[in-house]
Each structure stands twice: as C-alpha cells, then as structure tokens.
Amino acid sequence: MTKIFFTKEELRFREEVREFARREIAPYADDVEKGMYPGPLLKKIAEAGYMRQLHPIEYGGTNKGLVYEMIVAEEIAAVSAPTDMSRTASSTLCAIPISRFGTDEQKRKYLTPIIRGEMIGAIGITEPDVGSDTAGMKTRAIREGDEYVINGEKRFITNGADANIITLFAISNPEVPAKRGASAFIFPTDTEGFKVEKVYNLLGMHGMRIAHLKFENCRIPAENLLGKEGMGFNILMDELDTERISIAAEMIGIARAAFEIAVKYSTERVQFNRPINWFEGISFKIADMATLLDAAELLTLRAARMVNRGESASKESAMAKVFAVDHAFEICNQALQVLGGIGYTTEYPVERYLRDVRIGMIGGGTSEIMRFLIQREVYREFEQKVGKEKQAIPVEVSSTSGRENS
Ligand SMILES: Cc1cc2nc3c(=O)[nH]c(=O)nc-3n(C[C@H](O)[C@H](O)[C@H](O)COP(=O)(O)OP(=O)(O)OC[C@H]3O[C@@H](n4cnc5c(N)ncnc54)[C@H](O)[C@@H]3O)c2cc1C
Questions:
Q1: pLDDT (tens digit, 9 = 90+) per residue, 207-218?
Q2: Closest protein CA for atom 40 of ligand 1
Q3: I need a labelling partner for 138 at 20 to 30 A (CA). Which of 24, 177, 315, 382 fits?
Q4: Which band of pLDDT confidence, cut at 50, 70 and 90, is reported for residue 109?
Q5: Which residue among 132, 158, 209, 326 is best mutated to probe the pocket of ligand 1, counting the most ligand atoms within 8 A of its Cβ?
Q6: In a mutational test of the pocket of ligand 1, which residue from 167, 212, 366, 368 has the highest number of ligand atoms less than 8 Å from its CB?
Q7: Cα 232 from Cα 243, distance rounded (Å)
Q8: Of 203, 202, 185, which Cα lies nearest the Cα of 194?
Q9: Mean of the pLDDT values across residues 87-94?
Q10: 290: how many CB neighbours lie within 10 A of its CB?
Q11: What is the pLDDT of residues 139-193, one digit of tens each?
Q12: Which atom of ligand 1 has the smallest separation from the CA of 85?
C-alpha cells in the first residue's frame, strides 16, 4: 500500500471523503450515468467543504493544497467520475487562475461563491480549430475603452452550458505571437452575445456536459481581466499542472473501483470447481493491476507535493497523468476481462468505468502531448548537463583536441 507516503491527517481526510462519497454521491451515480447534470451534487460537495482545498482561507478555502485535492478527486471519481469532473472544472480549472492571479475584488465576487457552490465555473481554452496547439487560439478580446469585446468560439467546455462564469483565454493583442498576446478573463455567461451552440453526446462520462460556445461582440468590463494583459499563457501553464494532477487522481479513482470489483468477483466466481482467482491467468492480472495502481498513485503524489512546495512540476505532472491514464484504462479493461461476459453488460459498472476512463487520454492535454512535454524536459536537462560538463573541462585539456586553434 502507498499509505506510508501520506500523513495521518491526509489518511483521516481520505476516510472522511470516502464515507461522504459513498453516502451522498454514490446513490446518484446511476442517474448521472443516465444523463443527469450533477449540479445538485456539486452543491452538496461544496457544502461538505470539498471545493476548498486549493484556495486561500480568507476567501473560504482551507489552503490545504494539492494532496488534499488529489484525495477528493480520487474518492469522488471512484463513485461518480463525471460528477468529479464537473466539480474540478468549477473549483479547480476555473477557480485556480482566479485564486492565483485574481484581485481581492475578483476573488470575493467569484472565487468565494464557487467554493460555496453558489456559482458554477468552467474553463475555456479549446476551439474548433485549436486543441493541442493552444498558441493558435483565434478567439479575440480587443480592448475598447473600459471594456473588452470578445468574438470567437470555444468547444468541449465542461460545465459550459451551466456555468455562471468561464475563465476564458483569448488573444488580446494579435500583433505579437500568441504566447505574449493572449490574456485570461473572467467571463460572466449572462453577457449579451454569449450562446450555447450545442451540448455533445459522449462515449462515457455521461452527465458531464461539454458544450460548444459562441461569443459574438460580447462586452465585458476591463476589470474582468485576470492578472495583466498578455499574461494568458503563463496563467494557463500554471493551471494545467494542477489540472493534470487532478485528472490523474480521478483516473486512479475509477481504476481502483474497477479493481475492487474484479478482486471480489474473482473470489466468488467458480469455474472448473474452484474460484477463478485460483488460476494464475486471473490472479496475475490482479497482481499487475495492484502494482500499477500504486505506481500511478505514487507518481501523482510526487507531482502534487512538488506543486505544494512551489516547485516547477511540468514534467512530473505530465508523467503522473500519462502513466495514470494509460494504466487506468488497462486496469478497467482487465477488470472487465476478469468478469467475463457479465462484465460486458450493465449488470456491473465496469463497462461504464472503461468508457469513463478513456477521457483521461484526451482532456487536459492528450497522452501524445504529455509525452512531448516529458521528452522536452528530459532533453533540456540533458543539454544543461552537457553544457555544464563542457564548461567544466579545463582549457589545456580541451585544447589537446586542437579545435580551439583551428
Ligand atoms: C470530455 C471532454 C471535456 C473537455 N473539457 C474541456 C474544458 O473544460 N475546457 C477546454 O478548454 N477544453 C476541454 N476539452 C478539450 C480537450 O482539452 C482537447 O480535446 C484536447 O486538448 C485535444 O485537443 P483536440 O481535441 O482538438 O485534438 P487535436 O489537438 O486536434 O489532436 C488530435 C490528435 O493529434 C494528436 N496531436 C496533436 N498535436 C500533436 C503533436 N504535436 N504531436 C503528437 N501528436 C499530436 C493528439 O494527441 C490527438 O491524438 C475537453 C475535451 C473532452 C473530450
């Protein structure tokens, strides 16, 4: 078990959240699977205080940090993953930029109501022509006097049709490269010109509504700018590390739920006069699942602790996400295999877990992009090391190569 890597207080908190999720969320998991938007559940979660982990105490948070957020994500996702994805879209993805870059007034007006469940938030990055390549963003926010005028489209926005506010990323200065020309805004969805174009049907994560949104000459006050103009990419990159760790935790939660069903079923199902866990073909699957679950949790915990310490964790959060999502998918797949035919039916939720878990490889940056980020950091570190070694070579030794004189 990975228990020794958590503090006693964290373990106690996990028990508390697990009990809450079992009692308050699990009874509605089937309704959410049938398409119920988990809005009322978000309210319950907020009332229980589980939207507070990442936010400052003076605005209603607990400031406990990302390990506590990881625990909440894992435990709620283990009973209803779409519910947790809606929660994190609001109190993590939307709220983290406000929490870290917002003014006192913005925090009081938007952050506190989100933490209390009085407002629902969303984050708007992806567009019809722009997914992985966020620098190609086309949505414009052009300043006119005391307002920004917003035009463009965002798609696949979780909570997009239900949110009160969207943390919106848009180009505010088209004259410079997007990395310096993008800004972040708090966009109230009651702004004139805002339209929900469509809500998509999904493979899994039913109930988690993702929407295509249109912005036509939407005017928002200039005071809704987050941070400074041109800081959009810094704000986005800062948010994404936290988002990826939350997604990793959610996928671990789903995989753990599938794993637990597979363990129990394998001890009860009898074939050839013995429980099927007597066959290594089954019990070795369980061994692999247990190992991968612990490894995923440890990678995620490492990244979360680094973020808590204010360290840069882009590589570690990408590693945690890609490892957790790839293996969570495989764990759900193998769990279904342990159940045989009944696993393919809706008698057990494992088929649902397999559909739900697939989003992990796409949302918050695809698995290909995670690998891109990891290798980029690996080569950057390599270049730095080689550079230092070169600098450390004494001149008289290096000059024997003759290159200095050529
Ligand atoms: C259920 C769901 C919820 C979502 N919620 C939100 C949300 O709340 N807010 C939001 O802004 N977005 C959200 N998204 C969007 C999500 O972040 C994007 O779908 C994701 O970043 C990928 O973008 P894309 O779909 O445009 O794929 P593309 O970027 O078009 O990629 C297509 C394929 O090409 C690969 N690819 C692209 N570039 C490279 C490269 N350089 N190297 C190797 N492979 C590459 C990708 O990995 C992928 O396999 C959500 C998506 C889903 C499905």
A1: 999 999 999 999
A2: 369
A3: 315
A4: very high
A5: 132
A6: 366
A7: 16
A8: 185
A9: 98
A10: 15
A11: 999 999 999 999 999 999 999 999 999 999 999 999 999 889 999 999 999 999 9
A12: 3
Question: Which pair of tokens denotes residue 21?
Answer: 């999720």
CB-based contact 169:184 (threshold 8 Å):
yes
27 near 18, Cβ under 8 Å?
no
Ligand 1 neighbours, Cβ below 6 Å, are: 89, 122-126, 131-132, 156-158, 205, 210, 359, 362-363, 365-366, 368-369, 372
Residue 158, burial from CB neighbour count under 10 angstroms (0-12, 13-18, 19+):
buried
- The closest-lying atom of ligand 1 relative to the alpha carbon of residue 160 is 8
Distance 353 CA to ligand 1 centre (A): 21
All structural domains of the chain, each given as residue ranges with its CATH number in brackets, are 3-115 (1.10.540.10), 121-230 (2.40.110.10), 234-387 (1.20.140.10)
User: pLDDT of 302-349, one tens digit each?
Assistant: 999 999 999 999 999 999 999 999 999 999 999 999 999 999 999 999
